[in-house]
Write a structure and sequence with these properties.
Number of strands: 26
Radius of gyration: 25 Å
Helix content: under 10%
Number of domains: 2
Largest sheet: 8 strands, mixed
Structural class: mainly beta
Oligomer: single chain
Shape: globular
Bound molecules: copper (II) ion
CATH superfamily of the largest domain: Cupredoxins -  blue copper proteins
Distance between the termini: 76 Å
CATH architecture of the largest domain: Sandwich
CATH class of the largest domain: Mainly Beta
C-alpha cells in the first residue's frame, strides 16, 4: 500500500460548490450547507479518503465561536460522496486527546468495519491511524459518527454526511438539478463560554444545522422549476419536524434507501427522528423567499430562549426604575410578547449568539437556530448557488395595512346566545364527569 493520502483540511465555513468528480464513476454531486465534500484519490480502483479526527473551532454564526471536535478542520466533518459499487478505503487518523472510532451509519458492510469500539474493533488510540475498507453496496443517504465515548464525542460535534450515488439510472431515484444535504445537531453552550457541556441529556440551548445557527446558515438558492432534493440526517437527541413554506414535497428516501414511488405522499413537514435520515424532493415552482425550518419553535431560537418567565400582560412601569437603582443592568422583557428581542441590543456575555436575529427586507426575522430560507428565482443560473438577495415582490403581492374604516364588531350579537357554563362529558364506560 502506498503512503497515506494527504489529508485535506477546510477552514472556511462557507457552503463549498459541488465537488465534481474528476476520477471514478460519474455522478451528480451534492451541496453541503456550510460544508464541503472530501476529495479522494484513486489507488488501483479503490477510492481512498483520509479523515482526521481533531479539535476544531467552529464559528456557529458570525462572531460566535465554539470549541468542538470534528474532522479535517470542521464540525461536521466533510461529506463523503461515492457511487454504488465503489470500493472505498478510509484512513482515520486520531488527533483527539482520547481514543475514537467511526461508525458508518446505515451502510451494509463487513461486521468488522462497522466501527463500534469493543464489538467490531479496538478503539483507535490517540495518535494512531486505522483503515476502514468496504464496498458501498446500496445507494442512499448515510451519516458517520464515533461509536467510542459517543456521548462526549457527538456532543462535541463529531459527525459527517455520506451520500452513495446510484450507479446509472435507478427506478426509484430521480435525477435532480440541486441536491442539498445537512445534519441536524445540538449543543449546550453556556452563554459567555466556548465549550459545549458534554453531559447534557435533553436541555440543549443551541439547535443547529451543520453546527451553524441562523443567521449563520446559508440559504438554499435554486432556479425556478428546478427539481430539488434535500437530504437531512438527525444526530441530536430529539426529533425535528422539518417544514418548507410555499411548496409540497415527497419523502423520496429514508434510512433504508429510496422509497418506492407508490409509497410516497405530499407533505409540507416531515419529522426526522433521532438517528434517522430523510430525503425530500420537490419542484421549486413558486418564486420567492420561502422559510425552511424546524417546526419546534424553541429550535428556531438560540441560547437564552429558555427559563425566561412569561411576563405578557404584566405592567412593569415604575418597577424597572426602582430595580435599576440597585441593579443598573436590569431589564424587563416580554410584557408585550418577546418580539422586541429580535432588534434589542442588550448586554449579553461575550461570545454569546443573540437569541434571535437576522434581518430581512421588511425588518427583523426574529429567528435563530434551525432556520434558513429557500430562495427560488427565475434568473438563478444553473449551477449557481450564490445568494440572489431579497426577493423582489411583484407589485400588489405583499400583505399590506388596511387603512379604511374599521369594520363594526360582530361579537355583541353572538354573546347573547346562551353558552353552557360548563360541559357534561359522558364517558363510554357510563361515568359522568363535570369539567
Ligand atoms: Cu427541531
Amino acid at each position: 500500500m502506498a503512503a497515506l493520502p494527504e489529508p485535506v483540511i477546510q477552514s472556511s465555513v462557507d457552503t463549498a460548490p459541488p465537488l465534481v468528480p474528476n476520477s471514478g464513476r460519474p455522478y451528480n454531486p451534492v451541496v453541503t450547507l456550510n460544508g464541503w465534500s472530501l476529495p479522494w484519490r484513486m489507488n488501483n480502483g479503490v477510492k481512498e479518503f483520509h479523515l482526521v479526527a481533531e479539535p476544531v473551532v467552529r464559528e456557529m454564526s458570525p462572531g460566535f465561536k465554539v470549541n468542538m471536535w470534528g474532522y479535517n478542520g470542521q464540525s461536521p466533518g466533510p461529506t463523503i460522496e461515492v457511487v454504488e459499487g465503489d470500493r472505498v478505503r478510509i484512513f482515520v487518523t486520531n488527533r483527539l486527546p482520547e481514543h475514537t472510532t467511526i461508525h458508518w451509519h446505515g451502510q451494509r458492510l463487513p461486521n468488522g468495519m462497522d466501527g463500534v469500539a469493543g464489538i467490531n474493533q479496538p478503539a483507535i488510540p490517540a495518535g494512531k491511524t486505522f483503515v476502514y475498507e468496504f464496498e458501498a453496496r446500496r445507494p442512499g443517504t448515510f451519516m458517520y459518527h464515533p461509536h467510542a465515548d459517543e456521548m462526549v464525542q457527538m456532543a462535541m460535534g463529531m459527525m459527517g454526511f455520506w451520500v452513495t450515488h446510484p450507479k446509472g439510472k435507478h427506478p426509484h431515484i430521480n435525477e435532480v438539478d440541486r441536491d442539498f444535504c445537512f445534519l441536524l445537531n445540538a449543543f449546550d453552550v453556556e452563554p459567555g463560554s466556548k465549550t459545549p457541556k458534554v453531559a447534557t441529556m435533553t436541555d440543549f440551548n443551541i439547535w443547529s444545522w451543520n453546527s451553524r445557527i441562523f443567521p449563520g446558515i446559508d440559504t438554499l438558492n435554486v432556479r425556478l422549476n428546478d427539481r430539488v432534493r434535500i437530504r437531512v440526517g438527525n444526530l441530536t437527541m430529539t426529533n425535528h419536524p422539518i417544514h418548507l413554506h410555499g411548496h409540497e414535497f415527497l419523502v423520496t428516501g429514508t434510512d433504508g434507501g429510496p422509497t418506492p414511488p407508490s409509497t410516497r405522499w405530499y407533505e409540507v413537514t416531515t419529522d426526522v427522528a433521532v438517528g434517522q435520515m430523510r430525503q425530500i424532493e420537490l419542484i421549486a415552482d413558486e418564486e420567492g423567499d420561502w422559510a425552511f425550518h424546524c417546526h419546534k419553535s424553541h429550535h428556531t431560537m438560540n441560547a437564552m430562549g429558555h427559563d425566561v418567565p412569561t411576563m405578557i400582560g404584566v405592567d412593569h412601569r415604575g418597577l424597572v426604575n426602582k430595580i435599576q437603582r440597585v441593579a443598573p443592568d436590569y431589564m424587563v422583557m416580554g410584557e408585550r410578547g418577546m418580539a422586541d428581542m429580535g432588534e434589542m441590543q442588550m448586554p449579553i456575555p461575550d461570545n454569546t449568539a443573540p437569541m434571535m436575529t437576522g434581518t430581512g427586507q421588511f425588518g427583523p426575522i426574529e429567528m435563530g437556530g434551525m432556520f434558513s430560507v429557500f430562495k427560488v428565482r427565475k434568473d438563478q443560473k444553473p449551477g449557481d448557488y450564490k445568494d440572489p438577495g431579497p426577493y423582489k415582490h411583484p407589485s400588489g403581492t405583499v400583505a399590506y395595512e388596511w387603512s379604511g374604516a374599521a369594520p363594526a364588531p360582530s361579537r355583541a350579537s353572538q354573546a347573547t346566545s346562551a353558552a353552557p357554563a360548563d360541559a357534561t362529558a359522558v364517558k363510554p364506560n357510563g361515568h359522568k364527569g363535570r369539567h
